[in-house]
Specification:
8 helices
Length: about 220
Amino acid sequence: MAQANSTAASTEMDSLLVNDPQMEGEITGCEGCKDSLSASAMPSCHAPTYPDMVLYPPLPPDYTSLPCHLVYAFPVTRDVLRSSMRKLGFKASKRVIVSETLASFGWILEAKLDYKYNLVYCPALPDEQAEEDDMVSEWEGNPAVHTLALAATASHKLFHQRPTPEQWQKLEGIFEGSKPRWFQTHWPKDRFPQWLWEDLPKMSPALYDITFGGTAGTKKGHS
């Protein structure tokens, strides 16, 4: 039985590292990443990806044995969300409901950054850092961290959904004070809502300009 579990874990890990012919180039990273990739092993220095995309911190060594998939995400509290919305020129009520507003805000950010993937609201399991930073909230009656997720270990496609360095720099500025990292989701693997990351309707940058005045801060909304 232990051998079967090990094989399943290895298969899951390998699937994230197999090059997709539809992507430009091959999965790469720093020199440490390249050494691990040549040995068909998940690097311990970064979560590698394709050229011109951001390298995320490494996955935890036990990620394949966890009962749920991981997401790389910004943890977001009400204060963080209100601050982020103001940076884009939106008003935000002191009573804004994070779980309801963050999904819409992610959709707006996709257009603002001309981001070709999805930015997804995801309730995550609290980690020690979230507890230290007083970022633990509630989701469906359970302790949770509200996050805006960029990538997930649920599939090769979701694992390699990454921003460019320029887009990443803008996201870090918008969510200043939030420490992005890998989180366990609240969903078991067989209930992971993969559709949230795939082929959802997008607002085009042109429609963003028409709706919100072209540049952040020129038109107010979302009061």
